[in-house]
């Protein structure tokens, strides 16, 4: 196993960081790594906002549900889907691009582009001994996030990425058994097989929580998912996304 | 610069592969790397289909616009957004999850999850000396792809990933200047500044094409984007996505 794969497999979310800001050089390396990711038809449909202003960080932490690690970290990035550049280009080039920009296809492209870039940034940071945590919590209120970061239309914040040197330990969380996630040639939709696989996974997860909480927790994964998904969370999203000019047709 | 960052910055799309199939061990390492990526609230909302059947590969290559490297590679993965598992879990646990599953929020979560996983897979493969190419072309006809891979509802193929040992050379394509993609604290929406930055980038890209084609091509990036986006491509996407149970509310 090479060092890169070791870094990848060793990933855990870090939620406590040393009070040590990343240098400009480190930030540059992370952003350049992000930019090196593949991009659909060279479109590069994303923007990264690095947040240094403590007032803005505090506000973002509140939006994300008072997660202290949004405020306290080495650096905080917000990854955005961005077609604002392309709208401008359409105007400069007298080209009718709006139909495309507002399509579900381009919404997907921008999300995929931004996510590939973010994962490159994460791996780059982790390879330098830092820890990372994705912050989906900013999606609690994207209107407010857009205000904090002064985002124009055709730009949507997708998630934050807290980066820094880990303070304290965290552990690798077991993933679904490979057989549940990886199929060959066709999707194996057999319910009994899936259930058997997820039953085994539930046992793994129960033991994981049991061990780490001295017996206080023993959640099953399927139980967590059923509970989480029964909450009607962030149902404003469709309206917000379309209001910003994405996913309209 | 460490080896991982070197691998990341050295990325180029590879479109010609040696006739050498990946071993099961290599496939396992790549899938495990994919699975190690962060996942929103532990949801793991994706599935990866490895396609070995030459008839299926041929069909996918046709769908993608007769791209030979979809057929000829070391291995071909299709990354899918997947909430089918979670629909089943809802039923097993007597939990009303449908509202959540059909939300734009969860559509975004599934796309982001799948993309983070795919980028880990890519970096893992590249760290082992392989090359990769994302195949957005499968989105030309997702109905047909779903048929080939026998995908149930609540599963959407997003893109392919061709992996294998490179045959022949390809070069790193210059990305947008960092200043165009990375902003600090607020989005810099100043049009004149953006235009100046993109003018400089256009010169870089023109030289890039000029050098590589012996003067035959000298496209500007903005010109490419204007042209590409004026085409109303894959406008069936919204209907398809909603038909499969995503992004409905």
TrEMBL record, chains A, B:
Keywords noted in UniProt: Flavoprotein, FMN, NADP, Oxidoreductase
Listed GO MF terms: oxidoreductase activity
CDD domains, A to Z: NfsA-like (cd02146)
Keyword tRNA-binding: no
InterPro entries named among the record's database cross-references: Flavin_OxRdtase_Frp, Nitroreductase, Nitroreductase-like
Domain Nitroreductase: 8-165
NCBIfam families with a match to the protein in the record: PRK10765.1 (NF008033)
PANTHER family assigned: NADPH-DEPENDENT OXIDOREDUCTASE, OXYGEN-INSENSITIVE NADPH NITROREDUCTASE
Family to which this protein belongs: Belongs to the flavin oxidoreductase frp family.
Protein name: FMN reductase (NADPH)
Organism: [Bacillus] enclensis
Species lineage: Bacteria, Bacillati, Bacillota, Bacilli, Bacillales
């Amino acid at each position: 196993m090479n060092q890169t794969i070791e870094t990848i497999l060793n990933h855990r979310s870090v939620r406590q960081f040393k009070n040590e800001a990343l240098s400009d050089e480190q930030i540059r390396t992370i952003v350049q790594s992000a930019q090196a990711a593949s991009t659909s038809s060279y479109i590069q449909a994303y923007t990264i906002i690095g947040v240094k202003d403590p007032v803005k960080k505090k506000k973002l932490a509140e939006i994300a549900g008072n997660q202290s690690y949004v405020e306290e970290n080495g650096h905080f990035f917000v990854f955005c889907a961005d077609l604002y550049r392309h709208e401008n280009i359409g105007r400069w080039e007298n080209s009718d691009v709006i139909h495309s920009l507002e399509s579900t296809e381009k919404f997907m492209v921008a999300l995929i582009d931004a996510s590939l870039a973010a994962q490159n940034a994460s791996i780059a940071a982790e390879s330098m001994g830092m820890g990372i945590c994705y912050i989906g919590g900013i999606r609690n209120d994207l209107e407010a996030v857009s205000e904090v970061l002064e985002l124009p239309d055709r730009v949507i914040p997708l998630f934050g990425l807290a980066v820094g040197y880990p303070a304290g330990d965290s552990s690798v969380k077991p993933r679904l058994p490979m057989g549940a996630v990886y199929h060959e040639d066709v999707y194996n939709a057999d319910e009994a097989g899936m259930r058997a696989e997820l039953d085994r996974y539930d046992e793994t997860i129960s033991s994981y929580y049991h061990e780490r909480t001295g017996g206080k927790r023993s959640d099953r994964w399927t139980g967590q998912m059923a509970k989480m998904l029964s909450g009607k969370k962030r149902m404003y999203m469709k309206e917000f996304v379309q209001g910003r000019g994405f996913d309209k047709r």
